[in-house]
Amino acid sequence: MNIFSERVTLKLIDDCDLEAIHSLHARPEVDHFNTLGIPKDIKETEGTIKPWISENRKDSIDNYTFSIELTKTNQFIGLIALTSSGAKKHKKAEVWYKLHPDFWGQGFASEALESILSFGFSKLKLHRIEAGVAVDNLASIRVLEKVKMHQEGRKRKVLPLKSGWSDNYMYAILAEDFNA
Fold it and tell me: Where does the N-acetyltransferase domain start and stop, copy by copy (predicted)?
């Protein structure tokens, strides 16, 4: 399954994405707000993404993990996921994303996020999509607000980052707000 936008394509990750994902996760700049930490080797990355790939291969997927690729070149530039564990009953999901630093500040994260929100609301018929973001992650906050997600609250000292415990802002968007 692929989701297309003007500049990026979202593709369900597979085994062939291991090296690119490992390279992304191993970058200190990407790790700054990452709760997974930098993997010690590619085997650790493989262990992290194996459940994501298994989920992507199911007939009925609850958690979608996509690579973000440049549409023109198919170059891997990041990851985005929609975790819809409460989708059936509560019609909600959570989104997360990470982008290679070479592609920061160019609108690719916003475009990928807009695409996955559209997928969640139109194809999965979700009512609500949420995201959490470290309070110091100003670039990601701008991405969330650019796609009209609203800050709904703050969780205190919930993210175990390398720099210590961080507060987390909670953002969300409703289908009716996205389609307005």
Answer: 8-176
pTM score above 0.85:
yes
Question: How many distinct structural domains can be found in the chain?
Answer: 1
**Taking CA 54 as the corner, what is the angle to CA 79 and CA 6, rounded to the nearest 5 degrees?**
30
153 in a domain, yes or no? no
- What CATH number should be reported for the domain holding residue 53? 3.40.630.30
Task: Judge whether 172 lies within some domain.
Answer: no
Q: In this structure, are strands 92-99 and 76-83 parallel, antiparallel, or unpaired?
A: antiparallel
How many CB atoms within 10 Å of residue 95?
25
Domain that holds residue 15: 2-129
Angle formed by the axes of helices 18-25 and 42-56, nearest 10°: 120
Q: Give the count of alpha carbons within 13 A of 41, CB side only.
A: 1
Instruction: Examine the pLDDT at 47 and tell me if it is beyond 70.
Output: yes
Helix-then-strand count for the chain, H and E: 7, 8
Residue 146 lies in a domain: no
Token digits of residue 35? 């709760």
Q: For 125-176, how does the pLDDT look when each residue is reduced to its tens digit (9 = 90+)? A: 999 999 999 999 999 999 999 999 999 999 999 988 878 899 999 999 999 9
**Residue pLDDT, tens place only, 81-97:** 999 866 677 899 999 99
173 falls within a domain: no
Distance CA 109, CA 169 (A): 18
